[in-house]
Amino acid sequence: MCSGTDSDECADNVNLCESGNCLNVPGGYRCECDMGFIPTPDGKACEDIDECTFADICVNGRCQNIPGLFRCQCSIGYELDRSGGNCTDINECADPTTCISGLCVNTPGSYICNCPQDFELNPTRVGCVDTRSGDCYLDVRMRGDASESLVCSNEIGVAVSKASCCCSLGQAWGTPCESCPPLNSSEYKTLCPGGEGFRPNPITVILEG
């Protein structure tokens, strides 16, 4: 009766089962593969799993397969979630520098900035500004007749924005003139988000003194 000795292929060839562990078995060997890899049909090697072929991988982004893993490259307006496997919407409205002086509405991958009456988006679309121009007055009083209109005098500025006037020394602005909003009122805070003495630049919305 003849008995043979099993050859340990794993010891004879240390290059077997790359990306896995080689296990000697009677008459041969098999591979136990690392995470992200699966054995080939004959069990003699490990091959990469292409996770990008799976459903619900890198939603709202682009999947890039790499050996043993995958990488998500998120679309604009999205960021990786904690799992690293999907992209979630960035809430731009949580940033106080987004949609200054307007109402920010978050949307998938973006946001909408709704400006109040008489305001419009600035060129960089980060905030709302009142771009109208008019004269600025230091003194204002009621006309005292049935018209209830205002009489404005002591002109201190010509063709200036309402913010430039009312956020500084002006008491009335425009043609026909209208009273500047009361200090600390909601209208005043919208027009003068930096408070008294500061006005938003009509191009950048950056506060200027």
Automatic annotation (TrEMBL):
Q: Does the keyword Disulfide bond apply?
A: yes
The UniProt record lists the EGF-like domain at 6-47, 48-84, 89-129
Q: Where in the cell is it found?
A: Secreted, Extracellular space, Extracellular matrix
Do the record's keywords include Disulfide bond? yes
Q: Where is the TB domain?
A: 134-192
- CDD domains the UniProt entry points to: EGF_CA (cd00054)
- GO molecular function annotation: calcium ion binding
The highest taxon in the source lineage is Eukaryota
* Any single Pfam family the record assigns to this protein: cEGF
InterPro entries, alphabetically? cEGF, EGF, EGF-like_Ca-bd_dom, EGF-type_Asp/Asn_hydroxyl_site, EGF_Ca-bd_CS, Growth_fac_rcpt_cys_sf, NOTCH1_EGF-like, TB_dom
Keywords (alphabetical) are: Disulfide bond, EGF-like domain, Extracellular matrix, Glycoprotein, Repeat, Secreted, Signal
> Per its record, how is this protein called by name?
Fibrillin 1
